[in-house]
# Entry
Amino acid sequence: MIELRPTIISDCQFIIECNEGKDEDFLHQWAGPSYSFPISLNQIVARLKDSIYTKFFTAVVDDEIIGTVELGFIDYKKKQCKICRFLLGEKFRNKGYGTEISKSLANYAFNELNMNKVLLHTSNYNASAIKCYEKAGFTVIEEKTINNNEIALKMELTK
# Structure
C-alpha cells in the first residue's frame, strides 16, 4: 500500500539520487523548466517553500521512498490543477505504483481540494507514462508540438 504524504526537506535527497548520472534531457523530461541542470538540493528546497499553488507529495511503501510528485497550478476558481514533476525511482517503475499514485492524487484533488478537473502533460514518446495515466482514467485531450518538434500530450481526468 502506497502512502502519499507531504514532502519534507529530508525527502529531497531522493530527487538528487534519482538524477545522479542522468543528463539534462532526463531532468527536463520529468521536471520541465522548474529546475536547471545539474539539479541541486538548494533548487529543490527553494521550490518546496513556494507552495501557495502547489502541493508536494512523497510516495512511500514500507517506509521506503519510491517517488515524489506535485499537484501544481491549483486554481480554486476554475476548480482544476495539474499533476506535475512526477518522479518514480527506477526500481519501482512498471509495477503499478505510478497508476496508484495518479489515482490517489486525483482523489485528493477531487475530495480534499474540491477540484473538478485534474490535468497533466507528458511526451508522446513516454509510452509507460501514457499507459500509467490511462489506467488511472486520464484521457488525451490535446496534442501540441513543442521544443525541437517534440509532441506533448495534454491529458485530463474529470470528477
